[in-house]
Amino acid sequence: MVSCLFLLTLSIACTPVKTLDLVPESYPCSVDIKNQPQECKPALPTNQVDAKGGALEFDDPDLTLTFDEGTLSKAQNIKVSQKLKEDLLRQVKSESDDLFNLSNVVEDSICIGGLTEQPDKPVSVEVTIPESFRAKLTENDEIRLMYQNKFRGEFEYHYAVALSNGRTNKQAETVTANLPAAAFQLDDITNEFQACVVLTSTPTAKAGRQSGRFKEQVEGECLTGVTLTYPLSVPTSSYKVTSPYGDRQHPISGNWRRHNGVDLRAANLTEVIAALDGTIVKISNDRKGYGHYIIMRHNDGSKTRYAHLDVSSVDKSIVGKAFKAGDLIAYSDNSGSSTAPHLHFEYYPNELLSNTNARIDPFPCFSTTLNTAITIKDSGEEKDDGIVVLINGREVCRSSSTNVTNQCSVSNLRSGEAELTVLCVEAKDSYCTYEIQLDKGMKFKKNGLKIIEGGTYKKEPMKYNINIP
Predict the structure, then answer these.
(1) Could you tell me the pTM of the whole model?
(2) Most buried by CB count within 10 Å: which residue of 98, 117, 391, 442?
């Protein structure tokens, strides 16, 4: 009897428990090779993705999301909606012509949300292009995908839009883009992380690729190869970036944010100057972001934005006027969503010259030499003298008997001591009187001032030593 009980007990202990029969078919379990029961976990719902990553397909709107392994730390229920997001579309349309040259914009945006955490890696989104949208396109149009960009930094808050790397031709049925982690920001209403995108197009399908100058930006190098004038009238020793371009991670929350420009140190009412020759195309006020700002379109097709400007110095009457690099266009301040005086500067290359018309890091493009101006005045009573000014033997400015006051832009001056020469080339009495005024911190070594008066005869050059900051 005892032995039977022992055998019965042994039999019960060694029989595998068939837990699989107790689990619904929709919740499959795995069993190891020894047929021992494993913990059963439910299959992920069709709109859920976890740390292993994977692809999710949606029908309305028609798109596919792909998450690489490690993009998320835990399972997330992904929500996708197509709706009229007025604030996003308003921003897209506001900047479409001024900055991006958009030719078409879909009225509905697509928002990807439901996330309780920000992704650690870019998320691939493939959007089906509506036939009604493609029907509006020309042969020159290229389909693009824009996304909403919110940035809250130490000194400022910007609400803007950005072009993704998603681009294709009008014959394509879908467009795919990698949305950076910074595109997913915390929504104030749902308290969930979401990214919103909009289908657009730009007239760049042919001309850009024919230029043969497409390349990727390398850190520390200027993508366009164009030299920009530093947009503040300060000595080169005062060039200071207080907040750089690009993605950065919050030290406490760990969330990523994308800064679309550079913040440059500037005291209140510092002179803001044009970075390239061009025309002012827009002056506006964004109270919740950029504050008072100026957008310039330059002669090479690129554009620049100057933000957080002093309101009293931004005169809308200058819209449509042309300026040279180094010309005064405004004064700095901390208008808009800004907590300290500085200049926020953005650079948008011409897509005919580069592989993007989205913003790029402008700092590598700034000249390390000084771009400045020199003013010549005939200080005599008759105002009939013609004067030429040279710096280190290079002519930089000229006035005539009919143009007795002239301001000249001077570029690429290297820091240090230089020789300024005044030549008298036109005078009824063979003697020229003059006043020379230097700009941007340059000074005459003789008196430590930026203005000097003098006189000289024809064929007798007058030489001065000047200090260039």
Answers:
(1) 0.63
(2) 442
